[in-house]
Amino acid sequence: MTIGILGKKLGMTQLFREDGTWVPVTVIQAGPCKVLQVKTKAVDELPDEHRGASQNLGKKRGKVSRPRRPDGYYAVQLGFDPKPERLASKPDLGHAAKSGGGPMRFVRELRFQVAPKWKQGDEVKVDTLDGVPLVDVTGITKGRGFTGHVKRHNFHRQGMSHGNSKHHRKPGSIGRAGSISKGVAKGKKMAGHYGVERVTIRAIDLVKIDSERNLIYVRGAVPGHINSYLIVRRSPKSDIVKKAMPPMKEKKRKG
Question: Domains of the chain, with CATH numbers?
Answer without folding.
Answer: 1-32+126-156+188-255 (2.40.30.10), 33-45+70-124 (3.30.160.810)
